[in-house]
Give the backbone structure.
Amino acid sequence: MPDLQTYKGVYLWNYVPNLPAAVTFASLFGHVTLAHGWKMVTTRMWFCLPFVIGGICMSLLKPPLLPSHHQPSLTPAPPTVEEIGYIARAAAYNATGSLILYILQAIFLVLPPILFSASLYMVYSRVVRAAQGEAFSPMTPRKTTILFITGDFLCLSVQGNGSGLLVNPNLVHIGNYIIVGGLVIQVLMFAGFLWCCISFNRRFRAHVAGSGARVDVPWQACLNMLYATSMAILVRNVYRVAEFVMGQDGYLMKNEWTTYVFDGALMLLVMVGFWVWYPSQLKLKATGEMIELRSDAAGSAGRERTARDSKQAV
């Protein structure tokens, strides 16, 4: 096994990356991303583009830094730039002293869950409109999407600003606090989105049960998909918070397996779950000023009912 290398006397990695694991996850994410891209194009569900981009980014994972007592007198590399592509991770197996491979992690720290979340927010808005349940949503679909997407990018900005402070040894602790604060806000925002889904689910289900109204869209199945994928992203975000709170000497940053279990595997499950219960079962259909989403089956049933009504009228 190759030895750890340094960059100008500084260890960039805490361990030599596991080559088979990195190659395996890079291949898995590559295949799932291709599947998402194919399905997005064939179904013309362009709002799922963030999921495809997120899949490309999820060739990314963090390499923890060495504990401070392993590092020479130079300032330690910032612990916020700790995500690196699986491909770069595999390439770094024999080049742990490469700064270029290490810098890749700075770009993709929190990008994948933000992109995945953006698609989930838009799915929720379309489900509410499809079921014509705007009155039962805590916020209008448009406001829901704008609020949570804006919140996600606000969290990204906060964490980016915290990262900038880490290059100054005198401001490292302040930078860490800012980053943790941004991650906490991100967790709270996502918890708020889950509450929004649950609230709509409870109100709309009571309405359907009480009124006997017929809804020709699989709204409950779509919400169940949102619950599963959202919980996986939420657990991943909580893991990131714990990782930064524990710091460089913490267990999470010193053990590579936690990265694959609480980050890579969860994000892979999110992509697989979204692909299996893909919103292609909902089709856009314009009716006046209202945009409805109808499943293929529902559309066929509607056409049959229209034909029967026309015959009866004749």
